[in-house]
Amino acid sequence: MSRGMLEFHRVSKTYRDVRALRDVSLEVAPGTVVGMVGHNGAGKSTLMRMAVGLVRPDTGRVHLAGVPVERLGRLGGLVAASLDAATLPAQWSAHTAVTVAAGLSGLPVARAREVLELFGLTAAAHKRVGAFSMGMRQRLAIALALIGRPKVLILDEPTNALDPDIAHELRTWIAAHAEAGNAVLISSHNLPEIEQVADRIVVLHQGVVVRDEPTRALLAGGTVLIRVDRPDVLVEQLWHRGSKAEHLADGTLRVTAATTDEVGELAAAGGLVVRELVGERQRLTDAYRRLTADGNSR
Ligand SMILES: Nc1ncnc2c1ncn2[C@@H]1O[C@H](COP(=O)(O)OP(=O)(O)OP(=O)(O)O)[C@@H](O)[C@H]1O
């Protein structure tokens, strides 16, 4: 039984002699944000385009809400994507673009105004899109994608060219959209940012998924330092769950292969008094570098 609102099942794609995707399986469950990272040419855009039927896989299947994407006559309302901000008609105003989009989706004009407001485009609503800055185009493309509150939202590099405060607002909005039960797939080169918004992280490398894990798990693996009243009790408990602990000279334990939450909970469960608990998180950038190092593909 599948759980994904958006599912890629063993998809492969070759453009002439370039193997863009190889046997990629991935699912985005309702209520979650999946963040996709990978170097240039890793295959991220190809995968996202497949989700809206713009690219057909050579082999494999793409399902939206359990239905093969090619069988869905009308994708509007179910899925929306912001793939390339540069494709908006230059002579249109932002107001025209959102009004047309609202009309096509049977939405009230008030919703068009609302998305312009949400992305700070109200003042520039009647300016030609051709005269927009990169960041403004980006904001408009995202506004258009989310106007119909799609159940599956796909954003390719959404915060590219956005001011930090707008990027922050967008992340907040993405999280809220997912919390409302929708599925979101985003790609980014900005790793610390993906870390903040994604529940799961997929690392694509040379067309292959090299990692697909909850963000928390990908970031774990750092060292945890803990000082408790009875360290030997904790060492034994850690040993039972497969984590190693080393005694330091000052009585602190250095624990590997566990998170601060896990070590703290274990100490609490054992009735230990915790005097100090410090986590040295593995930054996503380090994890990503390691995963995409040369030769690290199947
Ligand atoms: N229409 C196309 N024709 C030929 N080759 C293509 C086409 N689209 C993508 N490719 C190639 O497929 C590979 C994957 O490209 P894709 O755009 O999916 O990667 P990406 O991870 O999105 O990269 P970026 O981060 O640079 O946007 C690349 O080698 C690219 O050159």
TrEMBL record:
Matching Gene3D superfamilies: P-loop containing nucleotide triphosphate hydrolases
Family annotation (InterPro entries): AAA+_ATPase, ABC_transporter-like_ATP-bd, P-loop_NTPase
Coiled coil: none
Keyword Kinase applies: no
Domain of life where this protein originates: Bacteria
GO molecular function, one term: ATP hydrolysis activity
Keyword Transport among UniProt keywords: yes
Keywords: ATP-binding, Nucleotide-binding, Transport
Sequence similarity: Belongs to the ABC transporter superfamily.
Protein name: ABC transporter ATP-binding protein
Record organism: Virgisporangium aliadipatigenens
Taxonomic lineage of the native organism: Bacteria, Bacillati, Actinomycetota, Actinomycetes, Micromonosporales
